[in-house]
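Page 42, continued from yesterday. The earlier attempt failed because a stray header line got pasted into the input along with the sequence. Redoing it now with the clean sequence only.
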Amino acid sequence: MAKVMAKAWPERTRRSFGDVQVITQDDAERDAAAAAARASVVVGELDTVAGLREAADLFSRIWDTPALPPMPHDIMRSLVHAGGQVHAAVRDGHLVGAAVAVFSAPADAACYSLIAGVSPGAESRGIGLALKLAQRAWALRVGTSRMRWPAAAAQRVVQYPPAGRGRHRVPGGLLR
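This time it went through. Structure tokens are written below.
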């Protein structure tokens, strides 16, 4: 029997039960691959210290916090060791996006997208969506029944940075 997950992306819904929509693992994998192809990125998993440092540096640039990343590499490393996942979006050999997913309590059997961001200058190209769909596919592969995203990920919420910076930031949300 195929695994299914409650989801927030209605374009591939196979069944609906009230407010809960489900998707098969195969559909989740296809959605993730298609979104990455549309965004011209390769989405993979990060688990090396060097890769996690690069993701922490990216988050610092996105949130304009060079002294203290909103998600330090050592915290990401701990989350990966505890079973979480850090996804990276790479284009032309450069990290252009990253997303961190963690698990909720075992009784809840849900995966939560803790933070995601897209490199300044690479927004509005579908990279955030590709990362979120990769998280969803991964969560199904490891046996999670639900995926949760912050409220900002379900809405298009943009904070405008200081004048002249030319970047958009959405703390804890999906950058588009």
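Notes: The chain is about 30% helix and 25% strand.
Reminder to self: strip header lines before submitting.
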